[in-house]
Amino acid sequence: MAYEYGYSLESPWNLCLWEAQFGDFYNPAQMIVDQYLMCSEAKWLRQSGLVLLLPHGFDGAGPEHSTCHIERFLQNINSNIYDPANLAAHRELNGRTINFQVAQPTMPANYFHLLRRQMLRNYRKPLVIAAPKIGLKHPMAQNPLSDFSEGEHFQPILTKTHQSKGASDHLKFVFCSGRIAFDLDQLIQESADDLSTNICVIRVEELAPFPSHLIVDEI
Fold it and tell me: Quick one: 163 and 138 in the same domain?
């Protein structure tokens, strides 16, 4: 990771990715994350666009390889916004005003546009992608080619509303992130006839900066 970090500094126009076979394989590189990636801009005014690809979630690999410890990254985000009710301030929270980005894309088009955005911006910020391996072959993880075309972009949240037969006009919001969205989707579809409430599932695809203003707008 130290090598890739240095390469990302010297070659900012190349998309530089460091991939771990399992999410927790970055544990030995924790020092590089803490001392360089998360704070190099604050300490040395050096921006890095390095992307860490860290598989995340139980995919039959066992407890030692099941997590990329998303909480470690989120605890080190240097956001200055402490008031959850200050929605105007949250609208100013973006990739430029944060030291680190954390995303958990579930759909291939969103993953594509996330990497594309990483290079199209006129600045560089490190990015952690916590991705479930199950998405590589899951039948629900598919997009039409039009979703990859011009005019499309990365979406920090993905919304899907399930209309239940004979349900009232009430709408229940369910928030999730990562691979659980596939299980949730399938469960709702299988029990759609028995549901008494319409359900709106909001997938939070970007955890930092947290898209709170987009969630409020969507609701």
Answer: no
In the structure encoding, which two tokens stand for residue 111, read together?
Answer: 């993953």
Q: CB-based burial of residue 184 (10 Å sphere; 0-12 exposed, 13-18 middle, 19+ buried)?
A: middle
pLDDT in tens, 139-171: 998 999 999 999 999 999 999 888 777 666 778
pTM over 0.85? The answer is yes
Residues 16/7, Cβ–Cβ less than 8 Å: yes
d(CA 52, CA 68): 10
161 assigned to some structural domain:
yes
Residues 53 and 100 reside in one and the same domain: yes
Whether residue 163 is found in the same domain as residue 87: no
Nearest to 210 by CA among 84, 44, 64: 84
Does one domain contain both 107 and 188? no
